């Protein structure tokens, strides 16, 4: 089985015998998001007997039940454990007016987990919590359309987008919540146990085809071929990860050559060229909105060195990254 991301670059977590998520619940958390996450992992565990899929509800105050958005209260399982005990540390948010009511120790725990290189997951308004702690700065984030304008105004240092069930930035994942949480959960299952287990889990949940559930960006919806739409969606969700055209092709049961033909017919580019253009678009945002150096941005976008990045940027935009940055009114602080 070919992988979407290069093994050398690594997926967000290497396949292990256990997928263990430490989960923080914020006051008035979304019960739909919690149940979707738990049910997907439960079905994954039924399909994959050699691996365990677990969620531990953790809290600064594990003896105090937390009330969900529908009034059902849930008591956490345990106090904070060392973050490295988990493959991921996730947070499910609640209504915006309740975000300030989260425990300070839970916020500190998220920052500590990030410092320990444990991938974080923001679900629903949990992404607001991550952004408030500066953990989404200079990253892309998938935000619910209902909250997008508020988020963009509050956190201009985050590249917020809508229309994606999740966005994987490597060290941080974001999900708009709702039924998209199930899609995120099945993706985590795929990363840890493979495509077959993830597909079986999705079937047991009667999960509809992804593109039929979440409204997509207009540019994506206009692509006539469903296989090409799926691959473009994957590219956008894993934009900063080391994607492989062969792995993307295998996701839609095509050869790499067949996928290249689809890309060339629709966009006039090969798969690899399309990925590069998408990354250069993200690089433009970083050049304008971040303090990162041109070299650091190029490396983050997957270019082997600064010269390689500058050459492709100049081909795409007709000027160097430095000139483009200056033209946008960028001032180094």
UniProtKB/TrEMBL annotation:
Keyword terms: DNA-binding, Transcription, Transcription regulation
Keyword Transcription: yes
Domain HTH araC/xylS-type: 229-327
Domain of life, per lineage: Bacteria
GO MF: DNA-binding transcription factor activity; sequence-specific DNA binding
Keyword Transcription regulation on entry: yes
Protein name: AraC family transcriptional regulator
Species assigned in the record: Enterobacter cancerogenus
Lineage, top ranks: Bacteria, Pseudomonadati, Pseudomonadota, Gammaproteobacteria, Enterobacterales
């Amino acid at each position: 089985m070919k992988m979407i991301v290069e093994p050398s670059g690594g997926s967000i977590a290497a396949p292990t015998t256990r997928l263990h998520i430490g989960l923080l619940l914020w006051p008035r958390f979304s019960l739909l998001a919690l149940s979707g996450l738990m049910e997907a992992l439960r079905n994954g565990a039924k399909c994959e007997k050699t691996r365990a899929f677990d969620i531990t509800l953790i809290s600064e105050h594990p003896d105090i039940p937390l009330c969900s958005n529908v009034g059902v209260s849930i008591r956490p399982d345990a106090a904070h454990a060392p973050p490295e005990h988990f493959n991921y540390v996730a947070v499910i948010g609640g209504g915006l007016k309740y975000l300030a009511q989260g425990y300070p120790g839970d916020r500190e725990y998220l920052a500590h987990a990030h410092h320990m290189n444990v991938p974080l997951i923001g679900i629903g308004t949990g992404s607001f919590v991550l952004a408030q702690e500066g953990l989404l700065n200079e990253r892309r984030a998938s935000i619910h359309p209902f909250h997008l304008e508020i988020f963009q105004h509050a956190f201009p240092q985050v590249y917020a987008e809508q229309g994606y069930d999740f966005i994987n930035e490597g060290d941080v994942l974001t999900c708009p919540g709702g039924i998209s949480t199930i899609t995120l959960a099945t993706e985590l299952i795929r990363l840890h146990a493979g495509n077959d287990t993830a597909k079986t889990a999705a079937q047991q949940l009667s999960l509809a085809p992804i593109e039929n559930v979440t409204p997509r960006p207009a540019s994506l919806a206009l692509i006539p071929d469903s296989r090409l739409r799926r691959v473009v969606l994957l590219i956008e969700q894993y934009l900063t990860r080391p994607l492989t055209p062969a792995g993307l092709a295998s996701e839609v049961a095509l050869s790499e050559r067949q996928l290249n033909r689809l890309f060339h017919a629709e966009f006039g580019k090969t798969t690899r060229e399309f990925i590069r253009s998408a990354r250069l678009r993200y690089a433009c945002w970083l050049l304008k909105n971040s303090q990162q150096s041109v070299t650091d941005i190029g490396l983050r976008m997957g270019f082997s060195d600064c010269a390689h990045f500058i050459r492709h940027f100049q081909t795409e935009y007709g000027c160097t990254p430095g000139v483009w940055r200056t033209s946008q009114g960028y001032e180094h602080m």
